[in-house]
Write a structure and sequence with these properties.
Number of helices: 20
Number of strands: 27
Helix content: 25-40%
CATH class of the largest domain: Alpha Beta
CATH topology of the largest domain: Alpha-D-Glucose-1,6-Bisphosphate, Chain A, domain 3
Low-confidence stretches: 166-180
Bound molecules: 1-O-phosphono-alpha-D-glucopyranose, zinc ion
Distance between the termini: 50 Å
Shape: globular
Structural class: alpha/beta
Oligomer: single chain
CATH architecture of the largest domain: 3-Layer(aba) Sandwich
C-alpha cells in the first residue's frame, strides 16, 4: 500500500459528461491517479469496506491502464469490492444497470463516448452515483475542487489485475476459453475482492423484463423483417450480437462492425448522418426495413427506416412517448412523466400535452434527469443528441431505444416512415436541425457567446423586433430571449448559463451553446426548432423549412465574423 506525493494538474474539470481529454493527457504520470483520488476524496471518508464500485468502459485506447490504476487505487482507498466487466468491457447503460442491481456505492465509466479513440484520440473518466446516473453538479464540483489541492494519492500495487491479456479486445468475444476469467479474486487477506462479470448478462436480463422478447423474436427471427445494426466498432458489438441475433433470432449479418476496437477502426463512433454515412448508404439500397447505429459506449442511437429514412432524435423520443403503452415496462410502471433537454425539439411537448403527461425541460446532459426519476416523476426522456432512455437505468440507452422502436413496429405493423408520418399527422411536426461547428478557436467562440449574452441581458431592446431570412418572406417576431437557467424541482439546485435562447411569437426557437464534451478548441452548437401544424407543409425538407431561421441565427450571432466558418462541420 503506498501513498504517493503529487501535485495538481490544471483543468481537471468534469464537463457535460465527466472528464474528457486527449488520451495523451491521461497518460501523463499521475494525471489519471490525481483525478481518481479526487473522486474518492470527494465522495467522502465514510467506511467504504462494505461498498461495491462498478468499473468498466468502451474498450478504447488507454482503458486497460486506467482500469488497472482504478482497481489498485480502489483497494488502497479501502473499497471492499470492485465489479468489472470481462476485460473491462461494459457499455454505459450496462454500468448503470450493474450499479443499481448490486446496490453499489457508484461506478466509474471509462469512455469519451462518441469522440474518436486511439493514441491521438480522446479518453474520459466519469463518476456515477449509487442511483446509477452521472454524478450531479454538486459532486462534480467537489471532485474538481479536490483536483486543485491534491497532495497525494493512494495506490496498492500488490493488487495485480489478471484480467488483461495481449490482444484482449480482438479475441474477447470470439475465443470462448477466455470466459474462465469470470469470477472473484481476493486480495489483502480478504479485505478486497475483484469480481469479473460477463459484460452482457445482467443488461440482457433487464431488457427481457422491459420488452416482450417473444413478440420481438417472432418479428425478427429468420430475417423476415430485415434489420441492420452498426456498432461502429464500439462497445455495442457484443451486446447487439447477443440480443438481436442470439436472443431474437436475427441473422448474424444483421450486426456490422461488431468487434470493439481501441481506435474504433479509425472512425468517429458517433451515430449521426455524417459519421454513420456508410450505414445510411446501405439502407438507401432499400434491402433493409430498419437500421440503427450506436456510439462508442452504447448510450446513443440513430434510427433509420427503409431507404435510409432518417428519424430525427427529437421525433424518435416523441414517437416512443406516443406509443409508450405498447412497451410492457411502461404498462406495468405507468407513465410518470416525460422530459427533454432544453435544445431538444418540442415534439414530445405535443404528446405530453395531448395525452396529459407532465413534461420537464432540463439543461443539456443526462445528469439532470436523475433527480426527477429518483423522485418518481419521470419515466421517459431524451435529448436531441441521439439520446433516448427511461427510468429503467439512469443513463441514456441506445439498445433500449432500438428495442422500443422494434416493439412499436411489431405492434403497429407499419414501416418506420409510416409511423413517423402518422405521428406528424396526429400531433403536428416540429422541424428541427442542429448545426455543429467543431474545433473552432476558443477566443472567437467565447466572444460570440458573450455578445449573444449581452443581447439577451437587455431583452427590452430586441423583444417585439421582426426578423426575416435572406430570401424568404416569412417574418418572425421575437417574443422572449434569455440564457437558460434551471432550478431542479427536487433539490432546488440552480444551474445557470445553459444556452442562449431566442423564442419567436410562433414558438420557433433558436438556441446557441458551447459544447461541454469536446477536447480541442471550442464546438458551437446551434439548434433550431419550429412547429408546423399545416399538413401540406409537414413533408418539406427540414433544411428548407428552417432556412429563414438559420439565416436569422447566423445574422444575430455574427457567427462567421467571430469564427471564420462559413459552413458547419455536422448538420443534423
Ligand atoms: C453532448 C450532447 C449532450 C449529451 C452529451 C453527452 O454534450 O449535446 O446532449 O448529453 O454530449 O453525450 P455537449 O458536447 O453538447 O456538451
Ligand atoms: Zn455515449
Amino acid at each position: 500500500m503506498a501513498t504517493v506525493a503529487t501535485e495538481p494538474f490544471e483543468g481537471q474539470k468534469p464537463g457535460t459528461s465527466g472528464l474528457r481529454k486527449k488520451a495523451k493527457e491521461f497518460r501523463r504520470p499521475g494525471y489519471t491517479e490525481n483525478f481518481v483520488q479526487s473522486i474518492f476524496d470527494a465522495i467522502g471518508t465514510a467506511d467504504l469496506t462494505q461498498s461495491t464500485l462498478v468499473v468498466g468502459g468502451d474498450g478504447r485506447y488507454y482503458m486497460r491502464d486506467a482500469l488497472r490504476i482504478i482497481v489498485q487505487m480502489a483497494a488502497a482507498n479501502k473499497v471492499g469490492r470492485v465489479v468489472v466487466g470481462k476485460n473491462g468491457i461494459l457499455s454505459t447503460p450496462a454500468v448503470s444497470t450493474l450499479i443499481r442491481k448490486r446496490k453499489s456505492l457508484g461506478g466509474i465509466i471509462l469512455t469519451a463516448s462518441h469522440n474518436p479513440g486511439g493514441p491521438d484520440g480522446d479518453f474520459g473518466i466519469k463518476y456515477n452515483t449509487g442511483n446509477g446516473g452521472p454524478a450531479p453538479e454538486g459532486i462534480t464540483k467537489a471532485i474538481f475542487e479536490k483536483t486543485k489541492s491534491i497532495k497525494e494519492y493512494r495506490i496498492c500495487k500488490e493488487v495485480q489485475v489478471r484480467l488483461l491479456q495481449k490482444d484482449w479486445i480482438m479475441t474477447l468475444y470470439t475465443v470462448k476459453a477466455e470466459f474462465d476469467c469470470i469470477g472473484e479474486q481476493t486480495f489483502l487477506g480478504g479485505q478486497f475482492v475483484l469480481e469479473i462479470v460477463d459484460s452482457i448478462t445482467d443488461y440482457a436480463a433487464l431488457m427481457k423484463e422491459i420488452f416482450d422478447f417473444d413478440l420481438l423474436r417472432t418479428f425478427l427471427s429468420g430475417g423476415k423483417f430485415r434489420i441492420l445494426v452498426d456498432a461502429m466498432n464500439g462497445v455495442m458489438g457484443p451486446y447487439a450480437s447477443r440480443i438481436f441475433c442470439e436472443e431474437l433470432g436475427a441473422p448474424a449479418e444483421s450486426v456490422i462492425r461488431n468487434v470493439p476496437l481501441e481506435d474504433f477502426g479509425g472512425g468517429h463512433p458517433d451515430p449521426n448522418l455524417t459519421y454513420a454515412a456508410d450505414l445510411v448508404a446501405v439502407l438507401k439500397k432499400g434491402e433493409h426495413d430498419f437500421g440503427a447505429a450506436f456510439d462508442g459506449d452504447g448510450d446513443r442511437n440513430m434510427i433509420l427506416g427503409r431507404g435510409g429514412f432518417f428519424v430525427n432524435p427529437s421525433d424518435s423520443l416523441a414517437v416512443i412517448a406516443a406509443h409508450n403503452q405498447s412497451i410492457p415496462y411502461f404498462k406495468q410502471t405507468g407513465m410518470k412523466g416525460m422530459a427533454r433537454s432544453m435544445p431538444t425539439s418540442g415534439a414530445i411537448d405535443r404528446v405530453a400535452k395531448e395525452d396529459h403527461f407532465s413534461l420537464y425541460e432540463v439543461p443539456t446532459g443526462w445528469k439532470f434527469f436523475g433527480n426527477l426519476m429518483d423522485a418518481g416523476k419521470l419515466s421517459l426522456c431524451g435529448e436531441e443528441s441521439f439520446g433516448t432512455g427511461s427510468d429503467h437505468v439512469r443513463e441514456k440507452d441506445g439498445l433500449w431505444a432500438v428495442l422500443a422502436w422494434l416493439t412499436i413496429l411489431a405492434t403497429s405493423k407499419q414501416s418506420v416512415e409510416q409511423v413517423v408520418n402518422s405521428h406528424w399527422t396526429k400531433y403536428g411536426r416540429n422541424f428541427f436541425t442542429r448545426y455543429d461547428y467543431e474545433g473552432v478557436e476558443s477566443v472567437g467562440a467565447n466572444e460570440m457567446m458573450e455578445k449573444l449574452r449581452t443581447i439577451v441581458a437587455n431583452p427590452a431592446d430586441v423583444i417585439g423586433k421582426e426578423f426575416a431570412g435572406k430570401d424568404d418572406n416569412r417574418r418572425y417576431t421575437l417574443s422572449a430571449c434569455d440564457d437558460f437557467r434551471y432550478e431542479d424541482p427536487i433539490d432546488k439546485s440552480i444551474t445557470e448559463k445553459q444556452g442562449v435562447r431566442f423564442i419567436f411569437s410562433d414558438g420557433s426557437r433558436i438556441v446557441f451553446r458551447l459544447s461541454g464534451t469536446g477536447t480541442g478548441g471550442a464546438t458551437i452548437r446551434l439548434y433550431i426548432d419550429s412547429f408546423e401544424s399545416d399538413p401540406t407543409r409537414q413533408m418539406e425538407d427540414a433544411q428548407v423549412a428552417l432556412r429563414p431561421l438559420i439565416d436569422i441565427a447566423l445574422e444575430i450571432s455574427q457567427l462567421q465574423k467571430h469564427t471564420g466558418r462559413t459552413e458547419p462541420t455536422v448538420i443534423t
